[in-house]
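## retry 2 of 3
previous attempt timed out at serialization; input unchanged, resubmitting
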Amino acid sequence: MNIPSDLKYTKDHEWVKIEGDTATVGITDFAQSELGDIVYIDVDTLDDRVDKDEVFGSVEAVKTVSDLFMPLTGEVIEFNEILEEEPELVNTDPYGKGWMIKVSIGDNSEIGDLLDAEAYQEIIGL
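## retry succeeded, writing output
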């Protein structure tokens, strides 16, 4: 199971890469393996302000549909449009080409609520 130590995580299995005032968000390797083959990513919150823990989109796999939860309050400023044609990138490269959204961080104090790699490993039982 790949859990990069330079990223932050949520209990809902999203990863977050903080770069200045921008956060890149995707789902973890654990989440994609639990979901199975991903066939569609739906993000209809582009250019919207979304509060922490609210749904910003959904991911559809062969077996199920799962909501995606916002790890930090902010404005969704970019959607990874490559996923419209190649949603399977979330399975094959969840921390790279399979990223989902970029967010303009609205409240830097929420960053401290995110989990580090070690804490996330405990949640998933590694």
